[in-house]
Amino acid sequence: MGEMIRQETDWGEILWLTENEEDKELLSIQGLQVGIVSLFPGENQSKHIHYDEQVIYVVQGQALSIIDGVESSLRAGDFLHWKAGVEHQVYNIGNVPFQHLLISNPVLEEEGEFFLETAQGDASHVSPDLIYIAVEAIRTQFLETLHYAYAIFDAMGNLITQSQFYPSYCVECCQPASNPGVCFCMRQTAGEELGQEHTIQCRYGMEVFHYPIYFRGVFLGYIQSGYIRHSGGVRKRIDRVYDVPESVVAGIQALLRRIVKAIRNYCEFEQFRRELVEKELCIASHEESQRILMKNLRDVQYAMTDLKISNHFLFNTLNSMASMALDGGLMPLYQSIVDLSKMFHYTLRTQNSMVPLEKEVDYVKAYLQLQKLRYGEDLQIIWKISKRALNIQVPFNFLQPIVENAFVHGFSETAGKKIKLVITKNKEFVEIQVLNTGKPVSEQACYAVNQGILSNTSHGLSMIYAKLKAVFGEGCIFRMEPGVKGYTCFLIRIPLDETDTARKEKK
């Protein structure tokens, strides 16, 4: 049999059996690793995972083994089998080194299977950040359980993550865990070598394996690991650096392939998730467009159906209802039907975009009479209207929405409701004030509403302002004011000179 070589660890040491010509077939070809492990008193192998199958035979000492959270004691003469990928931990609970014979068999993969994906797939839409997401995803469940030295880089040679478990010799010479730029092994070679599998040999004789990481034909980065000497490398003996058998090298290489494959698999998952989200967004956008189109179509169909009702039939029905109310002595109901009929008549019969202000006022009066029927004495209506102002031409149906706004947003639910319509006229302008009691409105709130009107984000009010400005120009004023004596005010100021011009143009 071959000689024994020593590997020092932070918890003890391992004596590895090296291969000679006689046992090379047994060890190298089958990938077996054979060694004697010594766990020093008071030390422990912290929680970790080996991605190889292991069998141990205890030679001396006592230890506590924890496998997947299950505790068991180990003594001389005991056998133990660790499956590949099982999380385990060992404590020396005796006064002498805990020694056991170790036989491990790496779970190897065929190289053809490993490199199959490197030159295949669709490279479109592959983002370089995939490797960062993949490494972070496997960090806790995979990488942090490995007690091996490794470093993972992106395609530009930027360090993504690295292990803290470097050989003591590397730590003393180069301190790679704290200063990766110092270590020659961590310094990146330029050119095509980054995308190719190769072995780096540092000036101290340590060997580092370099594996590229491809996804859908795109070079995302690479992983480096090893930091070992083995019998096939430089034979010059260096203090505290020991050759490892070829079977250990095979195990490390198999582990690197697993890491690369895990990164690629998660990249595939993440890429699929992104493509799925993109497709779902496209489908959702298409469905929303279809929904809006169908709704608009239904609305048009409903509107066309409604228009089929004869205006003559509508007014005859309202007149019949009014007559019945009058005959029955139901004067409030009679008046309400008359007011409703006036409103229908105004909206259905008016063809011009410009009307006398007097008609707008009459329309508002009919609307308020109907609201009076709803609220009764709880609603007070105050009129202060200059008759001299009622002959000016104004846009059709601009005033009633402002009055309605008081019922929708202005009035409180408990207090009494007062609404006041004030219209005055002088030589320069006609001023209309729609005032209502209710919720107090601060200057800041008024400012916000007015900004919304000007920026066309206040919907109905913005449309009213646009309608007034189109007729009366920039000299027209339309704004909300805090008001006085508990009233909130909507102010409209129409310049008379531009009004006269607009009226003449309409004629």
Radius of gyration: 44 Å
Distance between the termini: 117 Å
The chain-level mean pLDDT equals: 75
Count of the domains: 3
Weakly predicted, low-confidence segments: 21-30, 108-121, 231-240, 501-507
- The total of beta strands comes to 23
* Spatial shape: rod-shaped
Give the quaternary arrangement of the chains: single chain
Order of neighbouring strands in the sheet with most strands: 1-2-3-10-5-8
**CATH class value of the largest domain:** Alpha Beta
> What can be said about the biggest beta sheet?
6 strands, antiparallel
Give a verbal description of the structure.
- The structure is a single chain.
- The protein is of the alpha+beta class and 507 residues long.
- The protein folds into three domains: 4-106, Jelly Rolls (Sandwich); 111-277, Beta-Lactamase, CATH 3.30.450; 379-506, Heat Shock Protein 90.
- 38% of the residues lie in helices and 28% in strands.
- The chain contains twelve helices and 23 strands.
- The protein has helices at residues 24-29, 111-115, 130-139, 168-173, 246-307, 311-327, 331-349, 357-375, 400-410, 443-454, 460-472, 496-506; strands at 4-8, 12-17, 33-39, 44-49, 52-60, 63-67, 70-74, 79-82, 87-92, 98-106, 150-154, 159-162, 198-201, 207-215, 218-230, 243-244, 354-356, 379-385, 393-395, 417-425, 429-436, 477-481, 488-495.
- The strands form five sheets. A six-stranded antiparallel sheet has the order 1-2-3-10-5-8. Strands 11, 12, 13, 14, 15 and 16 form a six-stranded mixed sheet that branches. A five-stranded mixed sheet has the order 18-20-21-23-22.
- A hairpin with a 2-residue loop joins β14 and β15.
- α3 (130-139) crosses α5.
- Residues 21-30, 108-121, 231-240 and 501-507 have low confidence and may be disordered.
